[in-house]
Amino acid sequence: MDEQGLPGKGEPTELHFLSGGTQNEIYLITRGEHRSVIRMPPASAPAERDEGILREWKITAALDGTDVPHTPAIAVCTDNAVLGRTFYLMGHVDGWSPMSTRRKWPAPFDTDLTARAGLGYQLAEGIALLSRVDWRAQGLEGLGRPEGFHERQVQRWTTFFERIKGRELPGLDVAADWLRNHRPLDYIPGIMHGDYQFANVMFENGAPAKLAALVDWEMGTVGDPKLDLAWMVQGWPADTSSPAAAESSYVDMQGMPSRDQVVAHYAEVSGRQVDDLDYYLVLAKWKLAIVLERGFQRAGDDPKLQAFGPVVADAAKAAADLAESTDYKG
Asked: What is the pLDDT of residues 37-78, one digit of tens each?
């Protein structure tokens, strides 16, 4: 940090572990009044995870100068002699994550449902703003392969499923066949988060609700941004005014805007039409079933992964049901 001329030279340095798992470890670095965050793979992660870190860094750096809430990009290091792995340094965001509240929103969102609705609108706004970024102008040419994005989806994930297959999933083939024949007609490439949900954003402290940053870019690419929208709303409660909405997700969804309302907000901010949302919902539900099936097949005695079993079956069936009932013709 000193050699790069970063703030805090000569100040006492403190290192604090924030979180970590098989993919990443995150540490807070405090040097005097300056705070930043290191993100790096653990020593046990496969070598290709270093490439993933560089991918995340490239997106984070590309967002500087845009209106997308994000963590500021500070520096990246590919010299393994420094910390043993490729890592990058980003600015510390003063805010809170829905994953740190243990199913209970912080005040005033815990009791003020009008204020809570703003969290849903802000979530939709984050990817709407992301979809508007000129990815070529921001240096992301070559990040993904936007040409043929939809043509590759079914083949890629079907091949993946065949590698992990341990059981039949009714509905999966029905949805796959429908997706092959109903690709969107007006696909406009843009930056995708890839796993967009409340778990992967931070909000500013206090009210009104204000998105502070989109985080965790492991799945980021240049593809079709409307898949992010479908990923976000695929499990959105049908009735957010119902008490049941409080238990429908890993966060309390009671008082949130309806799905139609957040989709309309996305359309207004992004400038993209959403008439073909059913295609993206079928793709999102179908893909979710395959992604979670991998965890279920590896569950062993892990009750959390075992719980994926019925969730996967429900997602595959929901994808097929929507494919067979939608009016969308492609």
From this structure: 999 999 888 988 999 999 999 999 999 999 999 999 999 999
User: CA distances (Å), 230 to each of 62, 305, 321, in order?
Assistant: 24, 24, 16
What is the C-alpha to C-alpha distance for residues 306 and 171, in angstroms, rounded to an integer?
20
Q: Please name the amino acid found at residue 17.
A: F
The C-alpha atoms of residue 81 and residue 111 are separated, in whole angstroms, by 50
Give the Å distances, CA to CA, from 210 to 15, 108, 245: 28, 13, 22
Q: Tell the residue number behind the tokens 């102008």, with chain if given.
A: 137
Residue 160's identity, in one-letter code, is F
pLDDT of residue 88: 96
**26 beta partners:** 19, 39
Q: What angle do CA 283, 120, 100 make, to 5 degrees?
A: 95
- Cα–Cα distance measured from residue 237 to residue 234, given in angstroms and rounded to the nearest whole number: 9
Instruction: Classify residue 143 by its DSSP letter.
Output: S
Spatial separation of the C-alpha atoms in residues 153 and 189, rounded to whole Å: 14
pTM above 0.70, yes or no: yes
Residues recorded for the chain: 330
Residue by residue, DSSP assigns 144-157 as S--TTHHHHHHHHH
Say what percent of the chain tops pLDDT 70.
99
Give the pLDDT score at 211: 98
Q: Which residues pair with 77 in a beta bridge?
A: 87
Q: What is each CA distance from 69 to 34, 46, 99, in whole angstroms?
A: 20, 30, 18
Q: Within the chain, what is the greatest distance between any pair of CA atoms?
A: 65
Spatial distance between the Cα atoms of 277 and 190, rounded to a whole number of angstroms: 16
Q: Which of 128, 143, 117 is nearest to 57 (CA)?
A: 143
How far apart CA 248 and CA 199 sit, in angstroms, is 15
Instruction: Fill in the DSSP letter of residue 30.
Output: E
Which residues lie across from 95 on neighbouring strands?
204
DSSP state of 42: -
